[in-house]
Fold:
Amino acid sequence: MASSGLEGKTAVVTGGATGIGLAIAKALAAQGANVVIASRKKENLEKAEELLKGSGARGEVAHHVLDVREPEAVDRVAQEVADRFGPAQILVNNAAGNFVVPAAKLSPNGWRTVVDIVLNGTFHCSHAFGTRMMEAKVPGHILNIVATYAWTGGPGTAHSAAAKAGVLSLTQSLAVEWGGRGIRVNAIAPGPIEDTGGAERLFAAPEVAEAVRRNVPLGRFGRPEEIGELAAWLCGEKAAYVNGACIVADGGAWLNKGFLPYLEG
Structure:
C-alpha cells in the first residue's frame, strides 16, 4: 500500500472523542499519525483513547480536556502538544455545538454559545496551532468541518449556519494568507451522518430522520468512516495541491431542490 505521508506526523482533532471527530481520529491513527483528541468531557476522551489504541492505531494516542472557547487554554494545549511531539502538523477543527430553534426564539446566550464554539473556537485553534507550524517552518494542514447550510442557510439553524459560514470564509482567507508559508487550509461539509449522536438529537423523531434520508439522492445517510477517510486523504500528501477547498460529502442532498419529482430511469 502506498504511503499516505501521515506516518509520524502529529494530528490534533477537536471534538475528537465522539462522532465524526472520532472517526477522523481513527482514520488518521490507522495511517500512522500520532493523534491527540481534545474535547470538554474527560470521560468521553478516556473511552475514545482506549478505543483508538485498540482499533489499529499505528502512532501514539493522547487526549487533552479543552474548551475551544478559551484562547488561553487552547494556547496551553498547543504548547503541551508541541512539548511532547513537536509542533502539530495537522489540526482538525471539528468541535461544534448546535440545536434546532426558530430564530425568533433563539436566545442571546444560545446564539453566543454556538458562535463562540464553532467560529471563535476554530479561529483560536487555527491561530495557536498554525502559528506554531509556521514558526517551526513545518508544512501543515488545517481541516475545518462545516456544513452545506453555510451557503444555503437553514431554518432552525440560524446560529450554526452563520457560524459555519464564518468558518468557511476563514478557511478561504487562511488558505491564501498561510499557503505561501506551507500551511494548507481546507474544509469538509458532511451531510447527515448516521450513528453520531448529534444527528439523532437534531432529527428528534424517526419520521423527521426518514424525511431527511429521502432528500438524499443516494438514498442513505453517510457513514462516519467515510468522512474519516476523506479527512485523512485531505491531510495527506496525495492532496498536497488542494488548498482553500470545501469538499461536500452529503450524497448530493444540498443539490436536491425538490422542484420536480424524482424521475427514475
